[in-house]
Amino acid sequence: MRRTKVLRDLVRETDLAPSHLVQPLFVVTGEGVREEVPSMPGVERLSISELVAEGTELQAAGIGSVVLFGIPSEKDEAGSGAYDPEGVVQLGVRALKEAHPDLVVITDVCMCEYTSHGHCGVVRDGEVDNDLTIELLAKTAISHADAGADVVAPSDMMDGRVGAIRSQLDDEGHSSVPIIAYSAKYASAYYGPFREAAESTPEFGDRRGYQMDPANAREGVREAELDLAEGADVVMVKPATPYLDVIRRVKDATGAPVAAFQVSGEYAMLKAAARNGWIDEGRAVLETLTSIRRAGADLVLTYYAKDAATWL
């Protein structure tokens, strides 16, 4: 049954299609901006007009979903750009939905890209204030939904934020907007290139006080179950490849839709090896994405989404 491609396809256990992939995009202020991220070759920061053009290319490639990360022109301690109705993500959502109404626009709900100190919430006495932060996260989610976001995705790892966001969305007339919760988000070394792209490296300390310990798998399942109880529609494991076992545990334990994020460091390593001629990029990427699907992920957020769709 392995002798020909048709025979292999007949008994293939795991499928990988463009419909399983979500393309992350960075949106910035300005006009006509396409600025490559040095540590992520092929990934660019896009102004709104270029964001709309990228949406056209993605849909032509068969990618139907994107997740937006905003990089404001100014940052402050309260991360006020995150919940500004005229913020860069909010403007980007409006433009994308006007130009591409069928494109599913997911928004990252966090504050690290907007705070001057680079942490994922409001800092008090050297630590992130969980309860004050979730109020602002809910406010951010509402501003995204008001702008037309199809899905909101809190990535901050504050305790109780999914419940607060769900309650606020329902109260503000957005009961049909789903939540993809970054439930098992680990304090990983693989986020480095993203922090360069989003200019969100913490000015002090690190994020181990609220992101998960990489040594813990059972905790990832507990976090996913808590988020589902608070109203999450999809739970996420991040990063993906180093945590395939966690993806499988979460899927088996919850039976819920599971997302996995192939993060910037995973992308950068594959890209660097390919550029050095050490791997066949297309085959290695599709094999890696298939492994994430095989582990139990229903959808995969990956910077390779558009390229992978072409290779598929």
Outline the structure in words.
- The chain is of the alpha/beta class and 312 residues long.
- Helix 7 (218-230) crosses helix 8 (244-254).
- The chain has a single domain (18-311), classed as TIM Barrel (Alpha-Beta Barrel).
- The longest helix is centred in the middle third of the chain and has 18 residues, at 130-147.
- Helix content is 40%, strand content 18%.
Topology (elements, then pairings):
Layout: H1 5-10, E1 21-28, E2 34-36, E3 44-46, H2 48-61, E4 65-71, H3 88-99, E5 104-109, E6 123-124, E7 127-128, H4 130-147, E8 151-154, H5 161-171, E9 180-185, H6 192-198, H7 218-230, E10 234-238, H8 244-254, E11 258-262, H9 264-275, H10 281-295, E12 299-302, H11 305-311
Parallel strand pairs: 1-3, 1-4, 1-12, 4-5, 5-8, 9-10, 10-11, 11-12
Antiparallel strand pairs: 2-3, 6-7
Helix pairs in contact: 2-3, 3-4, 4-5, 7-8
For the structure shown, list the relevant keywords.
alpha/beta, TIM Barrel, 11 helices, 312 residues, ten-stranded mixed sheet
User: Can you count the beta strands?
Assistant: 12
State which percent range the strand residues make up.
15-25%
Radius of gyration: 19 Å
Binned, the helix content reads 40-55%
The CATH superfamily is known as: Aldolase class I
User: What would you call the shape?
Assistant: globular
Query: What is the third-level CATH name, the topology?
Result: TIM Barrel
* Largest β sheet strand count, sense and barrel closure: 10 strands, mixed
Structural class: alpha/beta
- Span between N and C termini? 21 Å
Please, how many domains?
1
Report the uncertain regions: none
